[in-house]
Amino acid sequence: MTFYMDVPEEQLRKERAKARELRKTSWWKNRIAEGRCYYCGEHFPPKELTLDHVVPLVRGGKTTKGNCVAACKACNSKKKDLLPSEWEEYLQTLSHKDHE
Ligand SMILES: [Zn+2]
């Protein structure tokens, strides 16, 4: 069973606005300058990295430095609204492939 929190639209709007601001900070620019996806660990050009909320906003996550990571587009679109624990299961299938 998947538990979805009832996050008010107002809160989502506020957190998304904060994310837009966070993308302009030197903190974020340093993150993407490293060019590494937080999830798969692959290297990408900074422009291909997106800001991902570890705990998605729709699941009650906030736009804080601790909850925002640089993710490649592939990981970001696969992760979507999964919580870290749900996403962990997906990552494990990835590492399985590496050992095949
Ligand atoms: Zn990735």
From TrEMBL:
Pfam families: HNH_5. The keyword Hydrolase applies. PANTHER family: SLL1193 PROTEIN, TYPE IV METHYL-DIRECTED RESTRICTION ENZYME ECOKMCRA. Signal peptide: none annotated. Residues 26-77 form the HNH nuclease domain. GO terms for molecular function: endonuclease activity. This is HNH endonuclease. Keywords: Endonuclease, Hydrolase, Nuclease.
